From TrEMBL:
InterPro entries: Tobamovirus_resist_UPF0261 (IPR051353), UPF0261 (IPR008322), UPF0261_C (IPR056778), UPF0261_N (IPR044122). Residues 2-176, 183-400 form the UPF0261 domain. This is Uncharacterized protein, UPF0261 family. Pfam families: UPF0261, UPF0261_C. The lineage of its organism: Bacteria, Bacillati, Bacillota, Negativicutes, Selenomonadales.
Length: 401
């Protein structure tokens, strides 16, 4: 029989959680309840808040005495993040459901992110509309807007709770085994302006027995890829689109953070890297572009996305940081430079054609790369040329072999 974990603040929202618990059990599915509130729960849970606190060597009674909500939330969040993966490994549950406002969402989602990808995770939240990156991160949490606050049972909240229950029941009950030949996994990065390149490379690799996972280089995509590399899923990396560094350095909206380009190198995973889309910084709609950039070369990609051409100074900084990251590699690493352009709009008669800016990038990389660590190769090709893409794919195959 399948089991669904229900984790939440059973002290302040006990009525709501008890409603969900009974509904799940009415379908013949077991529940496994975890109390992560500070005070006494309205019903007896399978895992108490005392056990959650103990997971990080804290005392729930001391937490109560302090009467510090922020401190209590932080400790219990850390405790459940430690305990939840252990409970899953022990076979206590098959999926997890929770709901709450901003506090409850911030309390449980870090623990959900610790569970393996594919484990059903449903979060009903008042924070489910808008930017949910801080809650979802690189995991597969399903967030459902609560519409009304999670405060009592009413005609709206019960309908939303019902739908959330039906969703997770379907996830845990309707599964199938994927029967497929086990192939070496390759991670690749792509942006709209490098799609031809990565598509050619993917087709080349797939024809030779590799499975390719493509990550959209939107900040979250780069983080998700490196999370999988860190977890040991990936045998080779085709990091042709390193554009997230533009947003990290200049202040765009699609940064993957300051540790991008580190994981594969540190783990010794074979990697072929290029400079795809380093000609652009990403902003939202045109009216969101910072005023200091309004006199720059801007390109309205669509109503919601505005691109800004990187300058010579920015390309100098990009070259330095990419070299710095790649020079840390402990495994086979190739850096490939497409000398005729780094994106679909960095070519003659296109809005970001900038041979002078690209030259600064290339010269910086030539001077900063440690040739004892990184194999630097240059091609008189555009990044989207089929020959460039297939050469990159074959180089990765050679490194992996």
């Amino acid at each position: 029989m399948k089991t669904i974990a229900i984790a939440g603040t059973f002290d302040s929202k006990g009525t709501e959680y008890l409603y969900v618990k009974k509904l799940i059990e009415s379908f013949g599915v077991k529940t496994f309840t975890i109390h992560i509130g500070v005070f006494e729960p309205e019903f007896k849970p399978d895992v108490s808040n005392c056990e959650v606190a103990q997971a990080v060597d804290a005392d729930i009674n001391e937490i109560v005495r302090k009467k510090d909500r922020a401190s209590a939330t932080e400790i219990l969040s850390k405790g459940i993040a430690v305990l939840l993966p252990q409970l899953y490994e022990q076979g206590k549950f098959d999926g997890i459901l929770s709901f709450g406002g901003s506090g409850g969402t911030a309390l449980i989602t870090p623990a959900m992110r610790k569970l393996p990808i594919g484990v059903p995770k449903v979060m009903v939240s008042t924070m489910a509309s808008g930017n949910t990156e801080q809650y979802v991160g690189t995991s597969d949490i399903v967030m459902i807007p609560s519409i009304v606050d999670v405060a009592g049972l009413n005609v709206i909240s019960t309908k939303i709770f019902d739908n959330a229950v039906f969703a997770i029941l379907g996830m845990v009950n309707y599964t199938h085994d994927i029967i497929a030949e086990k192939k070496p996994l390759v991670a690749a990065t792509m942006f709209g302006v490098t799609t031809p390149c990565v598509t050619f490379a993917r087709e080349y690799l797939e024809a030779r027995g590799y499975e390719v996972l493509i990550f959209h280089a939107t900040g979250t995509g780069g983080k998700a890829m490196e999370n999988l590399i860190e977890s040991g899923f990936i045998q080779g990396v085709l990091d042709l689109t390193t554009t997230e560094w533009c947003d990290e350095i200049v202040g765009g909206v699609l940064s993957a953070g300051p540790n991008r380009l580190e994981v594969a190198g540190k783990k010794g995973i074979p990697q072929v890297v290029s400079v795809g889309a380093l000609d652009m910084v990403n902003f939202g709609a045109i009216d969101t572009v910072p005023t200091e950039f309004l006199n720059r070369n801007l390109y309205k990609h669509n109503p919601s996305v505005t691109l800004m051409r990187t300058s010579k100074d920015e390309n100098l900084a990009l070259g330095k940081v990419i070299a710095e990251k790649l020079n840390q590699a402990t495994g086979a690493t190739v850096l490939m430079l497409p000398l005729l352009g780094v994106s679909g709009i960095d070519m003659e008669n296109q809005p970001f054609y900038g041979p002078a800016e690209d030259q600064v990038l290339f010269d910086t990389l030539r001077g900063a790369i440690d040739k004892n660590v990184v194999d630097l190769e240059e091609f008189n090709l555009h990044i989207n040329d089929k020959l460039f893409a297939e050469t990159a794919a074959q180089k990765l195959i050679d490194l992996m072999k």
